[in-house]
Amino acid sequence: MHATARVKLGIAASAVAVALAVTGCTGDGGSEKPASDPIVIGISLPLTGDFAEPGKGVQRGYEAWAKIVNDQGGLLGRKIELKILDDQSNADRVVADYEQLIGRDKVDLVFGPFSTRLVVPAGRVAEEYGMLFVEPAGAAAQVFEQGFKNLFYAAPAVAGDHYNHLAKHILALPADRRPKTAAYAAMDDPFAQGTAYGLKAKLEAGGITTVVNEVYPPNTTDFGGIAAKIAASKADIVVGGSQYQDGVNLIVALQQLNYQPKLAAFSTAPTNPEFAKAIGNKTEGILAPTGYTNKAKYPSNLEFVEKYKAQFGTEPEEDEANAYTTGQVVAAAVKAVGCAEQGECQKKLVDWLRTNKVETVVGPLSWDAQGRPQGAHMIQQWAGGDIQIVLPEDVKEAGFIYPKPAW
Amino acid sequence: MTAPRNLETVELTKRFGGVTALDGASIAFHDGKINAIIGPNGSGKTTYFNCVTGMIRADSGQTTYRGHDITRRPPHAIAAAGIGRTFQLCRVFPRMSALDNVLVAARPGGVATRLRGARGRAEVARAREWLAHMGMDHLEGVEAGNLSWGQQKLLELAGVLMSEPETILLDEPAGGVNPALIDRIAALVRELNAAGKTFIIVEHNMDLVMNLCEHIVVLDRGRPIAAGPPSVIRSDERVLGAYLG
Amino acid sequence: MPSGGLLLQSVVLGLLLGGLYALLAAGLTLYFGIMRVVMIAHSAFLILAAYVAWWFNVRTGLDPLLSLAGTVPLFFVTGVAMQRLLLARLRPATLTMMSVLLTFAIALFIEGMLGYLFTGTQRRIQLAYSASSLDLFGARIAVVKLIAFGLAGAALLGLYLLLKHSRFGWALRATIQHRDAARLAGIDTDRVAGYGFGLGLATAAIGGTALALDATVYPSLHWHWIGPLMAIIVVGGLGSIPGAAIAAMVLGMAQSLLQIPLGTTWAQTVFYLALFATLALRPQGFFGGRLAQRF
Amino acid sequence: MRSVSKARVWLGLPVLLAGVGLVLSFPSLAPNPYLLSVGIVVLNYAVLSTAWNFMGGFTGYISLGHGALAGLGAYGTALLITKAGMPSFAALFAATAIVALLAIPLGFAALRVRGASFVIVSIALVLILLLVFQSWASLTGGSSGLVVPRPFPQLLRPEHHRVFYYLFAGLLALALLCWWLIDRSRFGLGLKAVREDEDKAESLGTPTFAYKLVIFTVSAAFTALGGGLYALWFGDLDPVFQFSILSGAYMVLMALLGGVRNLFGPVLGALIVGIGLEYFKVEYGNTPLHLVASGLLLAVVVMFMPDGVIPSVSNVFGRFFQPTRASIREVSAEQLREEARR
Question: What is the ipTM of this complex?
Answer without folding.
Answer: 0.83
